[in-house]
Write a structure and sequence with these properties.
Blueprint (H helix, E strand, L loop, with lengths): L2 H15 L5 H33 L1 H15 L9 H4 L4 E2 L1 E2 L4 H8 L1 E6 L1 E9 L4 E8 L3 E7 L5 E6 L7 E5 L2 E5 L6 E5 L5 E5 L18 E3 L2 E7 L5 E7 L5 E9 L3 E3 L2 E7 L7 E6 L5 E2 L14 E3 L3 E5 L8 E6 L4 E6 L9 E3 L2 E5 L3 E6 L4 E6 L3 E5 L2 E7 L8 E7 L13
Parallel strand pairs: 1-23, 2-27
Antiparallel strand pairs: 3-30, 4-5, 5-6, 6-7, 8-9, 9-10, 10-11, 12-13, 13-14, 14-15, 15-17, 16-17, 17-18, 18-19, 20-21, 21-22, 22-23, 24-25, 25-26, 26-27, 28-29, 29-30
Amino acid sequence: MTIREDVREYFEREAQRNPASPSLRASALAQARGQAVERRNFQWITGAVAILLAMAIIAGLLAANALRHKNVAPVPTHASPSQTVAAPTQLCFTAPPADWATAMANVAATLAGTNFAAGAIDEQDGVVYGGAWTGSRTIIASVALSTGKMTAVAPMSASGFGWMTYADGWLVWAEPGVVDLQLWNAGTHEIRQVATGPQLEGTVYLTGSRSNAVIGHGYMAWSQAVSSTSAELRVYELATGHVTILDSGDVGSPVFAGADLVWTKRDAGAAHPRFVFADATTLQPVAPPAELRDPRDIGSVAGSPDRLVWTGTPGSGNGTWFVDDLAAATIRTYIASGHYFQFPQLAGPYLVWFGADKNSIVDLRSGIGIDLPLPGGVEAAGDTIVVDRPSSVKANVGRTDVSVLHPSQLSPLGPCTA
């Protein structure tokens, strides 16, 4: 079974076990209407105070002071969604341009007798890491994109890996639904087991893919469930092995976005989570950008130096991509028919994801994309997109072709004819 199918099946089970509440949209609408009422009430009170001032200066000041401290809800200092969210862009999908098709047909590695699924990219050294299934073993492996040579990194469970990430010379991965983080140094080949824990299925611990880690700035950070209602955002210092708890509660997996470490947190009694920001270097709290301060429906999240991307939870808002252009402080939304939005990745201005029935690449500047058929997977980082195409699925071991795309060196996607 390929890793992509393992991950898809796991999250399909989780979505069925923990469906999103049908009241989420109604709650969001009610909150928006409540904010509008607050603004109207504040404007009415301001007018009333002006009338009182005209009638009697002293009485008017006293009334204004009482209203300001007792009866008027404060107006949020950040911009309202109507000021920061652009109108939705309808994505269109077309055939790959000729140079994209040529790049995908140019096989960087042919792995005979192996089903390989990419999981992380080392752009600097031109290496892709992933899970490999052969006739006799299952391993975490590296593939040199310049030579096509595959090298074993570590043993892997037959169930594959749930997620994987690479940065600063370190690779980390875990099995689906298990808080068992394996950390591997690409220079020394040292393997560390950073955290172990029980299956995140059942009634004791928070469910879902909550342990996804990020690496950078000399540390690894991840969210580890500790009860049915709480998790800890943990930070592991690579040099010392020291672990600190940065946050706790209903906290989600972190990402790097811009100059910050970003994660989600659902406050007690809240209908939706919110984004929490900390300086990625100092780990000190910082205020979220104005357009990201309100709670909202948040499912899968990804970040890059320029953007923060997320989709809604299954059953509610996962038919929309939300993309915050951090420099412009604007949230752009993208919709499409016939596509299931999940597991986002970013390669510059290109959004990449793998769905239940296809893989997709979209240029966020134009809203034009291409679909890549299954079986196979996509992995993105920086200016690199790796495409893996196994010749067989599940228990049938065949051959995997691996191709590499560098979007900045290719022509723009499109045009769309529909």
